[in-house]
Amino acid sequence: MGKIFLLLCFFSIEITYAQVENICNTFFKINFNKENTFFIVGRGTKSKSTIIANKFNVINKNLTHIGIGVFVKDSFLIYNVSDTKNERNCFIRKENLKSFLEVQRDTYYAAIWKCTLSSKILGEVIYLLDSVSKRNIVFDSRFNIKNDDTLYCSEFCAYILNNLISYKFNFHPTTMQLKDGLIKSYFQKEELIYFPVDFFAQSKKIKKIIEANF
Q: How far apart are CA 118 and CA 122, in angstroms?
């Protein structure tokens, strides 16, 4: 029985890796104008979907983590805020697509959205991503939306997009009355003001181009 269990685990991981490879291959075969397009890349993990996606998301109940992807000198980089520090002792990560999707063994969902505006606006996006990534950003575990030095993944993405000069996305946070006793005890407040992981999903400028369930 033990050998069968280990074999099933092995194949489930291999299938996941194959799916990741397929998503990467599909994405890079698409002919994008890299000079005026940025992307929102998302994943869903089983360990976080019950709490984050089901309770806090507005539309997409699979999405648990997002980042902003851009092409920089032909390299595709995804800037995202994680709840764990990287090798540089920083909560902001710059990852390639494969690394972003494979970072969690229990990843079961992935999706990519694109937004095409102008080369000037894309330049602003890249500038902001680079500038914020150099700051000492701490993971915002308490969802304190008023402190720009503490950010979580969707708050980081909303901050970047809302602070563009040439184009105003003007995304607004969601307000939720907390009824669950455990969640209320964790946040120590009755009302939560936050950016859902899928805060951008209703924007007409941001289009989904890839979606996969593992």
A: 6
Looking at domain 2-213, its CATH architecture is Alpha-Beta Complex (3.90)
Listed in sequence order, the residues at least 6 apart from 47 whose beta carbon sits closer than 8 Å to its beta carbon are 104, 106
Hey, what's the torsion of the CAs at 214, 64, 29, 209, to 10 degrees?
A: 100
First-to-last C-alpha distance (Å) of the chain: 25
Closest to 125 measured CA to CA, from 89, 77, 196, 81: 77
Other C-beta atoms lying within 10 Å of the C-beta of residue 86: 12
Grade residue 103 by pLDDT with cuts at 50, 70 and 90: low
β partners of residue 211: 111
Copy the structure tokens of residue 212.
């996969």
Helix (H, G, I), strand (E, B) or coil at 89: coil
153 and 82 Cβ atoms separated by less than 8 Å: yes
Q: How many residues does the chain have?
A: 214
pTM above 0.85, yes or no: yes
**Element (H or E) spanning 109, and its range?**
strand 107-116
31-65 confidence digits (pLDDT tens): 989 999 999 999 998 888 877 888 899 999 999 99
Every domain of the chain and the residues it spans: 2-213
Give the pLDDT score at 200: 97
